[in-house]
Amino acid sequence: MAAGPDPSALLDRVLALREDVERQVRTAFPGWPLAGxxxxxxASAANLVRYLALRRHDLHDLQQDLILLGLxxxxxxxxxxxxxxxxxxxxxxxxxxxxxxxxxxxAESLRAGDGLIERRARGVFGPPPPDRRVxxxxxxxxxxxxxxxVGRRLVAAGADAVRINTAHDTPDDWAAxxxxxxxxxxxxxxxxxxxxxxxxxxxxxxxxxxEARQQLGDAFWLVPPGSRAGSxxxxxxxxxxxPAILEQVQLGQEVWFDDGKIGGHVVExxxxxxDGAPVGTAVRVVVEHVGRKGQRLRLEKGVNFPETExxxxxxxxxxxxxxxxxxxxxxxxxxxxVQRPAEIDALHDAxxxxxxxxxxxxxxxxxxxxxxxxxxxxxVRALPSLIVHALRRGPTAVMIARGDLGVELGFERLAEVQxxxxxxxxxxxxPVIWATQVLEAMAKRGVPTRAEVTDAxxxxxxxxxxxxxxxxxxxxxxxxxxxxxxxxxxxxxxxxRLGALRAWASEG
Length: 508
Prior knowledge:
Elements: H1 7-27, H2 39-54, H3 60-68, H4 81-96, H5 107-125, E1 135-139, H6 148-157, E2 161-165, H7 171-187, E3 193-198, E4 203-207, E5 219-223, E6 228-229, E7 237-240, E8 254-257, E9 262-274, E10 277-290, E11 302-304, H8 317-327, E12 332-335, H9 341-355, E13 369-374, H10 377-393, E14 396-401, H11 402-409, H12 411-427, E15 432-435, H13 440-445, H14 450-457, E16 464-467, H15 473-488, E17 491-492, E18 495-496
Parallel strand pairs: 1-2, 1-16, 2-3, 3-12, 5-7, 12-13, 13-14, 14-15, 15-16
Antiparallel strand pairs: 4-7, 4-11, 5-10, 6-9, 8-9, 8-11, 9-10, 17-18
Helix pairs in contact: 1-2, 1-4, 2-10, 6-7, 8-9, 9-10, 10-12, 11-12
């Protein structure tokens, strides 16, 4: 029979790993932007540095050997990297009968990270319901501004927070939506948070979309509003918002529409003209990815250039115009397409200036929390510094916006990257919103797919799950709340709870 792993040799590996992690804290951590940060933020940043250092190593063999010895592996160390390494090292030292292992960590140090995540989640969303840990965030449709029952039904179905998108409707509509929801929450004895999303530099289709479905090989121009491409061909001219993005596109780059339903490549750049004068750039697109039956281009749907590193001022002028209205009603502000730490400082500075302005005050109490919406490749790469920058200034959460991310990264990488984002946020002790296409078929058609239900159950690994709007949104909220309630017995983020199995209770 083969001998099991050698505890003494494993201890040497863990001690070397622990020293490397702490060396990163001593060398890299002082350079992080933490001036003025409170001790909890500094502790979270240090744990994040430890986690990034830990995951630079391939731990596969080490983890398998630890499991064979019956020890807790390092696979659930995100929120407590230092204490978890100490726990493993002290257990190995006891097995090897060595005295040079680390001291066992305290129970308090092992639980501190999880407790901090939950406290921060309460600061963003409020308390969770008594029978589940994960909150449900429901997107409000336009008619919620004029029909109070729309928000009331969502709250009654189990929504713990609602989302208002400033890319649509008007400031008066946003205020009415928030007022109706808060009134419903008060009547039902519930706390329901209001998240208001700033639109960010998101290009959308604004006009001129052809009625026919797009098929493979079809072509059309993307142009600034009110303009035509310089080319004399008869191809459709589809107008877009944020035409400045067209100035940054290059030949051969990918372009996707409506969260990846239509895809193609840029095959020509031309001068766009209005009344004979140049007004920007026109981009000719050839469709190369579309379903067998084709797909219509639809107004207000998004346009993504995943290979183009968009460089536009963020927050945008439109964001800053919407911000005072958002500050008056929001518990949290969704920062769309944030990519750089300086953009976080710019938004916080703008909020501070508006809140310090002349009477009447925009709000009572502290500023709203900030939700960093991770939607681009650059945001994924910059996420550690984005989180630390935001935490310095106030309550922070991260939204994993799977719609834009799937287009930006490629659908093949999405599952892998969303897992890594969950781990990173847990290491930084920040709550996560799991978003986009959760129970999408149910919200739109009233019946979920089997895959959707399984996907919804994965939401237990976040602190909040977002649902998009649809004619059956109320039913989708109720179903999601039920799925999360059931999963709460079995899972807490990455950790199985090992609740009793019920399906086979009468067997044996």
